[in-house]
Amino acid sequence: MASVYQRIAFLLLLGCTLAVPAKAQKEVLYYQYQFNPMAINPAYAGNRETMHLTAMFRRKMFNLAQGQGFRGGGASPVTQSLAIDGAVADAKIGLGLQALNDRMSTFSTTGIYASAAYWMNLPNDASLSVGATGGVSFLPVGDLLTVVNKAFPSVGFGVYYQSDTFFGGVSMPEFIAKEYQLAGRTLFKSARPLFVQLGTKLEPVEDLLLYPSVLVTQAQGRPLGTDFNAKAWYREKVGVGLSYRRNSLGFTPLSYLQISGEYQLTNPIRLGITYNTQTPEAPVNTFQRGVVELLFRYTPNLEGFTF
């Protein structure tokens, strides 16, 4: 019986995909920018100078047919992402690497992307960086009988500024326009978003740090997206965050809430969990709404607090 439901769901999903061009490639990484800013801006690479490793595991809360997924088996599909960055050459050069294994989007994506940034010191302990990213994404494309992994190049650029109380950047992490057609229908089209980020650091009372920020997203053929974010850290040990994301990138424009919690377990290890009230990378009516993400960050030589 479950296999019948799976086939019906697959046909419905295919119909949605043929009716609306799917815009999915690196979008899953973009959703994680609150924990990995390099995902939307390559100029962030090396910002924290010491090497940082951030791993995230993204999984849907509920699945079709009592735990049976479209691909069979008893577990929901899981998306994994890994980001590593640090600085060399007296902290003037930032280097980063990101890997993605997405199994939740309409077009499952596997990709690897490298980033490099050049950092310049400015007066009043401020700094400015320019960065670029390049890599490749592999997407399974084809018809119902034949599916092959097709490689799509990825190139992007960004600028980032930070001081003791302010941070912001402008970036386009996906600069190359990419499109895939089948039988005259566009099945895949890259979103190519432009991101503008502004934020500040506040310390209203001792031991409490606040990081409010806003992210504006503009992509061709999409309504203007706006994220309102707030994150608070107590004694640099416990962090909570709330984000309202309006017209988020994904299969279709979608608005949802993201709630997060983080805990600095030891000096080099941080753990976190995030709940998203919607699944932006999948069609709205695929029987699955909420998404849970687990965060693991490892910083072997942590020098000062980083949010």
From TrEMBL:
Signal sequence annotation: 1-24
Domain of life: Bacteria
UniProt keyword list: Signal
Pfam families tied to this protein: PorP_SprF
Protein name per Swiss-Prot or TrEMBL: Type IX secretion system membrane protein PorP/SprF
Organism of derivation: Rudanella paleaurantiibacter
